[in-house]
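Subject: Protein record for review, amino acid sequence with backbone structure tokens
Why sent: The fold of this protein is of interest and is recorded here as tokens.
Enclosed: The protein record, placed directly beneath this head.
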Amino acid sequence: MFKRFSISLSLACCLSTLLFPFQSVSGEVVHPDVDKVCQQVGRKLASVSTKECLKLEYLPPRYYSVNGRAILETHFPASEGNKDAPRILFIGGIHGDEYSSVSVTFKWLKTLQRYHSGTFDWHFLPVLNPDGLLQRKSTRVNANKVDLNRNFRPAPEFPEPLAHWQKRAKKRLRYYPGHQPLSEPESRVIHQLIDSYKPTVIVSVHAPHGILDFDGGIQPPRKLGPLHLRQLGTYPGSLGNYGWFVKNIPVVTIELPYAGIMPKKKDVDKMWTDLVRWLKYKAKRNAGAVAAVDGVSNSVDR
């Protein structure tokens, strides 16, 4: 039954692309599956309008959630000839009940759309868990009731996520890691993008701890705006564990102060400029001197 449903869902997604490849919304050409998600995001979040969501240029949908919602992707490529540009995989909304994670990611996308210089190559997934977010009562977990941030493969020296959940997490349902790593289509999106996109750094936005976490072998940023570095340790099956200990890619985890309240605009802006400064510093050997870098002018102190 499950296999038949999955095949039917995949066929439906493909047929919708073939039969109704694009539609025009407010003068912009938008894939209907993207339009549907943006309409739902606009109704769900007070801080992100449907129009704001649709103003971004998305890739034609390649990935879908358990319930068949498109997982939005937008790409800001490095400038032509900048083959050594750092690649940043940026993820919002792994947990559907962390509204600010999605909202702030869209605000930074708006900044990047305006200021992108081509110094870095950015790949954004602003709503990784649309099923968790876009229901009447949003949930941390996806439609299969799996915590996507516990559904990745652990490093060999870490326990299996399911065994850890059973023994140490007291079987709390909101942290259920799934019956096996990468069992969920949403976590497999990250797995596939890591292998194909080969990011230099992964940035993931969460709430509500109000700190900056980091997994990696390089010097982390000490703070991003009001968020100060406080490394919490790595959980089996988490993206931080998978990104760094399995794939050797540093993972910056931004923990906003509140899940349901947006930070002040000045803090949103400062977090972004601090992040870009840190990325610029880490990439200095390859990036060279530039007049402006994705919303941060060269007049700021380095």
Remarks:
- Residues 2-19 form the longest helix (18 residues).
- Confidence is low (pLDDT under 50) at residues 1-26, 285-292, 297-302.
- The domain at 24-297 is CATH 3.40.630.10 (Aminopeptidase).
